[in-house]
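Kindly inspect what follows.
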Amino acid sequence: MSIQLSLDGHSFSVPALSELPAGEAPVTVELLLPRTMLVPGELFDAERGAEMLAANGMPPTAEESVVASDPEAEFVAVTAINREALRQVEEKLGDRARFTTPLLHTPANTAKTVWMSRRAGLLYIKVYDGGELQLAEAIPAATDTDAAYFFERLDGCFPLKEYELRIAGDNPKAARKLLGKRFRQTTCE
């Protein structure tokens, strides 16, 4: 199941909550939301999620709650989600809900790699160097111009010609055509 921001509030992608079978098995809920960040597992504190988002310049609004992915993982995704959407998830799934985000994906190669996934008008970016995560961001990027601008700015921080680009998400071939020439090598996952 996936939850994503829409112009009129929140939306659930197929299968809708009402179509999920009852049971006891965990259900992975993928959150496609702009106010998402990664926190090293050893620094994560569930009671301070809102403070962590605020310190990163994306405080939750009055209509949002903070949820997190697996707190025992190497990195924990912290996300601001609409309270009503969260209420609906909790009403249907209770403690079976396991939250995730594309930012938690680890590409096959992390030597000198930029990984990207463009989904639901958001650009998820992770930059690795020598196997170490250097940057992880969820950025609104509704158009190709938005994505190209972000990569132009990213090139100012990381010499992209030295990196491999690994592309996932919606329409990776179009992203490869748009951005591929900036990188040493480009691969669609």
